[in-house]
Every structure is written in C-alpha cells, then in structure tokens.
Design brief:
Layout: H1 28-37, H2 39-59, E1 64-72, H3 88-101, H4 104-114, H5 116-124, H6 131-140, E2 142-146, E3 152-159, H7 162-220, H8 233-267, H9 274-281, H10 287-306, H11 315-407, E4 413-417, H12 430-455, H13 462-468, E5 473-478, H14 484-487, H15 494-507, E6 515-520, H16 527-540, E7 545-549, H17 557-561, H18 569-573, H19 579-582, E8 584-585, E9 591-594, H20 603-607, H21 610-622, E10 625-629, H22 638-645, E11 648-654, H23 660-674, E12 679-687, H24 696-712
Parallel strand pairs: 5-12, 6-10, 6-11, 7-9, 7-10, 11-12
Antiparallel strand pairs: 1-3, 1-4, 2-3, 8-9
Length: 737
C-alpha cells in the first residue's frame, strides 16, 4: 500500500527588492493587510469619534455673527502725519487701531452701556458677573481685521443672540469713533498750546537776531541796495582783478610753453641743420637768415659745377671757396644771435608768469582779509534767515492744526456698513465638524490599528515562524474548520490537510516512523481538530489509522465523534479492559478511535508508565499510523511525555493568538525531549483567508475551486445521504473488535 503522493510545496512570499535575509522591507500591501485585519477596530474608533463629534456639535448652542465695516484713517493735519505715512508704518497704524477696538477701555464702556454683565449672568445662571469677567467673555467673541490694501476694518461679534451681536458690533464702532474724537481733541489742545508757546519763543529769537544784524552792518559800514541786501564793493573789485590776472596768466603760460618747447627742439638739432630748422620754425621772423641760406646754397652749386673742370687752385674755384667760408661765418653769427634772442624771450615769459602769480596771491590775501572782516555779518545774516524759516514753518503747522480742529476728527472714522443680525448661525459648522470628525476618526482608527499591530508579538506570517523559530511551516489551516468527515470528501478544507499530510511524509527522517503527536504552546490553538482531521486524510488515502485521545486533562475527540468517553485509554493502561474492548470504529473507513477513558486523579503516572510504552509498541505494530492527542505543552508534563514516546511531533500555532516567545519555548521543549529530528515542523492554524490576502495563495484558491465545483453540480448528481429525523447525517460508531 503506497501512502506517498507528490508533495505540494508551500509557496514562499517574495521578498521586497533590496531586502536582506535578516530584515525585509515592508510593502504597501503589508500596510493594507494590517488595515484589513484590524478593520473592526478602525471602524469602531471611526464610528465612536464621528458619533461623539456629531453629538457634541448638535449639542452646542448655535452662535450668530454680525459685522460692522469702517473706514479708519489717520487724523487730518496730525503733527506726525508725515512720519507715519507709507509702508510698514501703515501696517503698524492699522494693527494699533485693531488692538484699540478690543482694548479694555472700549469694551468695558460697551459692557456698561448694554449691561452685558447682566446678560451673561443670566446665561451662565449665576447671580451676577463682574465687568472684568464680562470683558473676558466679550473679548473672546470679538474679532477685527483690516482688508488688504484698503483703509477698511471689519469688526465681527459672535453671540448666541443674533440681535445682541449686531447691537454689540454697532456699539463698539460708536464707542471707538467717540474715543478717537476725544483723543484727537485732547491732543489738539495740548499740541496747539505747545506750538503757540514755541512760536512766541521763536519770534523773540528772530527779533534778537535782526537787531544783532543791524548793529553789525552799521559797525562795518556795509551799504544796502534797493532790495535791502548788503553790498560788499571791495570784495567785488578784488574778485574782478583776480579773474583778469588769472586769464592773463593762462595766456602767458600757453605762450611760454610753446616758445620753450621750440627752443628746446632747436637746441637738440645738429649745427648743420639748425639754420634750416630755425627758418622753418618761423619763416616770417628770420628773412636775413633765409637770404644767407639761399646765397650759401647757390655758392655750393657753383662750386660743384667747377670741380669737374678746374682744380682747387683755379682762381674761380678759390673765389667760390672764399665766398662760401664768408657766407658760413655770417650764417653762424646770425643763428647765434637768433638763438640768444629766443632764450631771452623764454626768460622774459617766465618772469612775467612769476610776477602775475605773485600779484594774484597778493589780491587773494587782500580779499581774504576783507572776507574775514565781513564774516560776522554773513554768519548773523544766515542765522536770521534760518530762524525766520523755522518761524514760518511753525506758523504753518499751527494754521493746519487750527483748520483740523475746526473740521473735526470724526472724519477719521466712517461707518460704511452697519451690523445687522445674522440670518443663520456660523458656529458650530456642522458640516465641517462632522467632516473633520470623519477624518480624525479615520486617522485615529488607523493609527490605533497600527499601534496594536506593533504591540502584537504573536505569529502573523510564515516568515515570522521561520525567522523566530527556525522551523519549516508544514501547512496552513484556514479558519472555521470542523471535522472533515462531517463536511464530506469534497470539503474545501480537506486539501489544506492533504498538503499537510504530504509535507509530513516528506519531512520525516525515518520512513518507518508511524506514531505522531500534535502539541501546542497554549490552550485553544486547534490542536485536537488538527490531529483528528490529519488522521482522517491519512485514512482517506488508504492507510490504517488509529487516533488516541491521550489528553487526560480535557479530552475532546469523543465530542467530535459524539461518543461516550466512559471507557478508553486509561481502562486499558490500568488493565481493566482489553484493547478489543476500548478501540472503536468511526464513519471514516480505515480510521479507528480510542477515547481517553475515565480521567485519573493523576495523568502523569498513567502516561509515564511501562504500560503506556507497551501500548505504543502494540498499536505501532497493528496500524500504519497512530496519532496521539495531547494537552498543551506549557504548564503540564503530559505533552512532553508523549513527545518522548512517539516517533514524530508537529507544533500547532494559532494565528495571532499567543506571543512568539511562548511558541518558541514550546518548540524548545519538544526538541529538548526528543531532539531536533523529532519535531517535523509547524502548522499555522485558524487563518482568516478572506481578510488576510497574504495566505490566499496558500489555501484560498482551493475554496474558489471547490465552491465553483459545488455550484456547478446539479441536485440530481449529488449522492443521497442518510439523514436522521433531525436532518443531520447519522454517525454510527461501533467496537472495532
């Protein structure tokens, strides 16, 4: 009989790109998986927050707003109007006025006029409220803002009484307007008195300065012209002479520069070229030298014509030579005389320049002395002009202040739109509050879900098992699994156990290993259901299987089959009954069942006995596979004893129930007793496939397959089942022997 079939390998979740074996990066789908799993928490928090926000919003007293709009300007003809105009100063001005509208002086005046302390006292249901408390209430409900790039200021008042809100806004505008007027009047009176006092002092200073100027004019003998302007004749003559001499000096310097440059050029000229250069420099001034040069050139020409025919001793040649020597001597004398004359002219021009500069310096010194003489008069005249100008400006300011006082300061504040009662409440904004409650509730729910997930250290994925326990996962069992023999052979849950059976067969080291127990770290992890269904699929595959309810603490397998637990394993181990009397058959062909029997006072002594070891050897020889149910391994020693007696053990871990440390401790206890080879692996139980898409690829497609198969079957094709009078399939159990 062949019990082996091809193993269906469990697919491994793909690692995120760049993830290492020790640490994997979270994918977006991992976050979505957490949201799906914790959706009830998210929904509960969301509904709670939205409900509370909605209830509070509808319970709040509705409040109405009324707005008065005013044009706020600076006071006309203000002394500081120039200094407080433009740029940041305008922003400071409007911020100051907005703060003034909400100041204690303004609001307390409004409270007293409208008796708001009594109104607020009735609302608060107290005997009375002080003005200070009423101010705090009113100040919290008043808001003033300036419209950008305008002189408009909007003042808004909130109140549960819409008519009272309008009255308060209008009254604040009126009180503020009156305050500005009173402040302006006080400032004007104080400013005018100060300005007039300063004007009297300034007029006295101007009179004294005028008297001092007249005395200096008489003392210095300064005449006055028709425009009553002082005349300084000495200064005028000196200035004219200095101007004329400076012009002559400029002309002389130009002539000196040209002449000295020419003389220097002639001095640097070779002697044989000097006569021609001198004539060329000034052709009209050196006619005699030009004539001698012409005669010399003619004699040179005659001599050159005689040389080819006559010798040096010829009379004509001698005559020409004598003439040339004589002309050369005359030319040298003429050149020397002319050069001497030019040098004399240069010296004369230099002397004229020095004399002119000396005259100019003397005139300047004379003029400076005259200026110093009249300097006190000039200073006094300038001081008088400054004082008169300051007096005139002060008089103009006084005139502006007087005109501004006559116009009144009410023009600085204009009410453009009076406040009217609001048509509908502005607070609380039900739509906005509910919308914010929805957003906040959703964020809080998601945050709480992730926080709970962070605190949850239980086993969630196959990777958790493999990384924390270092053990392979043999199978993944879905949620809400019952006994397979009740669900039928085509149950969608059966394939998960078939995969588990195949992986167990391939994982065992010894092909002759036949006895197995299923352990768990804590109670309620589905250990009994897992071992019963696993025995069922082994039997359905043709093996002779015995399942023993060896959980002597809380036996449960007999409840699955619906049989009595009065006789079983304990009766056999205590030699009260034979094996043929305690082993029962089940509705599954090839599957026998041994109940736990009457529970002893101490199960440890029963299981850890020679009779128990003999029993294990006996059933190993009679059956192909024997499965032993056991209590949780943590806290009691029964499971440890069973794990030591059997050939194989698997660890059942319920999805998201116990911490990983507890599961790790259970795995270590099994390995400590029977070695690492005895523990084949881990079974993840109670997985919610519909919520956790991570496990859909492990087991979910079997549900789709079987569901479609069942839906496609017609009622006529379904095999008839025997049912009892209650409509349930009947289960008949009988003794095996």
């Amino acid at each position: 009989m062949d019990y082996m079939r091809p193993a269906t390998a469990l697919p491994v979740a793909p690692a995120a790109p760049g993830a290492t074996s020790g640490e994997q990066k979270l994918h977006f789908l991992d976050y979505w998986r957490i949201i799906r799993i914790r959706k009830l928490i998210i929904l509960a928090v969301f509904l709670l927050v939205v409900t509370v926000v909605t209830a509070v919003t509808f319970a709040l007293t509705p409040r109405y707003s009324s707005t008065v709009r005013m044009i706020v300007q600076k006071d006309l003809f203000d002394l500081d109007v120039m200094r407080q105009s433009g740029g940041d100063n305008d922003i400071i001005f409007f911020n100051t006025q907005i703060a003034l509208m909400k100041s204690r002086e303004i609001l307390e005046a409004v409270i007293k006029q409208l008796k708001l302390n009594d109104v607020y006292a009735r609302r608060e249901r107290v005997p009375e409220l002080t003005v200070e408390v009423a101010f705090d209430i009113l100040n919290a409900n008043v808001e003033a803002v300036s419209d950008r790039n305008t002189q408009l200021v909007s003042l808004t008042v909130l109140d549960s009484d819409k008519a009272l809100a309008a009255d308060i806004a209008n009254r604040i505008a009126t009180v503020y307007k009156d305050y500005r007027a009173q402040f302006r009047e006080q400032k004007e009176r104080s400013g005018l008195d100060t300005l007039k006092s300063q004007l009297k002092e300034m007029q006295a200073d101007v009179g004294a300065a005028q008297t001092n100027l007249d005395q200096l004019r008489i003392k210095l003998g300064i005449p006055m012209d028709s425009a009553n302007t002082a005349m300084f004749p000495v200064q005028t003559v000196a200035a004219a002479q200095i101007g004329r001499l400076e012009q002559e000096l400029s002309t002389t310097k130009q002539a000196y520069t040209r002449l000295s440059t020419m003389v220097q050029g002639l001095i640097d000229t070779p002697s044989e070229e000097l006569p021609q250069r001198l004539v060329a420099a000034s052709p009209g001034s050196y006619q005699e030298l030009a004539t001698l040069n012409s005669q010399f050139n003619g004699a040179e020409l005659r001599r050159s014509t005689l040389n080819p025919d006559y010798g040096p001793e010829h009379p004509d040649v001698k005559k020409v030579v004598i003439a040339l020597a004589k002309l050369n001597e005359q030319i040298n004398r003429e050149v020397a005389a002319n050069m001497k004359a030019l040098k004399s002219r240069v010296e004369e021009e230099s002397s004229v320049i020095k004399t002119t500069e000396q005259n100019i310096a003397e005139l300047r010194e004379k003029q400076s002395k005259e200026v110093n003489k009249y300097q006190p008069f000039v200073v006094a005249q300038r001081d008088l002009a400054n004082r008169e100008r300051m007096r005139d400006l002060l008089q103009m300011q006084i005139m502006q202040e007087e005109v501004g006082a006559k116009m009144g300061s009410s023009r600085a504040v204009f009410v453009t739109d009076r406040a009217i009662p609001g048509m509908r409440p502005v607070k609380p904004s039900k739509k906005i509050n509910v919308a914010l409650g929805c957003v906040f509730g959703l964020l809080l729910g998601v945050g709480l879900a992730f926080f709970i997930e962070y605190l949850d250290t239980s086993v969630k994925t196959i990777d958790d098992v493999e990384q924390a326990l270092g053990t392979a996962v043999l199978g993944v069992i879905p949620q809400n699994v019952t006994a397979l023999f009740k669900e039928g052979p085509d149950s969608p849950h059966a394939e998960a156990y078939r995969v588990l059976r195949t992986n167990i067969l391939f994982s065992r080291k010894d092909p002759g290993a036949r006895t197995m127990t299923v352990v768990s770290g804590g109670a309620g992890e589905g250990k009994s259901t897992t071992i019963f269904n696993l025995a069922t699929v082994f039997a359905q595959n043709g093996a002779r299987v015995l399942i023993v309810d060896s959980d002597l603490r809380r036996p449960s397998l007999h409840k699955i089959l619906g049989v009595s637990n009065a006789m079983g394993l304990t009766n056999y181990l205590l030699r009260q009954n034979k094996m043929e009397e305690v082993v029962q058959t089940t509705p599954v062909p090839g599957l026998d069942f041994l109940p736990s029997g009457k529970l002893p006072s101490s199960s440890v002594g029963v299981l850890n006995s020679a009779a128990m070891r003999e029993f294990v050897q006996e059933v190993r020889s009679r059956y192909d596979f024997v499965f032993f149910d056991s209590p949780p391994i943590m806290g009691v020693s029964d499971a440890s004893i069973l794990a030591a007696e059997v050939d194989m053990a698997i660890l059942v871990v319920q999805y998201r129930k116990y911490p990983q440390q507890m599961t790790l401790r259970a795995k270590q206890m099994v390995e400590k007793i029977g070695g690492k080879d005895r523990l084949l692996g881990v079974v993840l139980n109670n997985i919610n496939i519909s919520q956790d898409s991570y496990y859909y690829y492990y087991s979910g497609y079997y549900y789709d397959y079987y569901s479609k198969s069942k839906d496609s079957e017609s009622d006529s094709d379904k095999p008839a089942k025997d049912k009892d009078s209650s409509g349930k399939a009947s289960v008949e159990l009988k003794k095996k022997y």
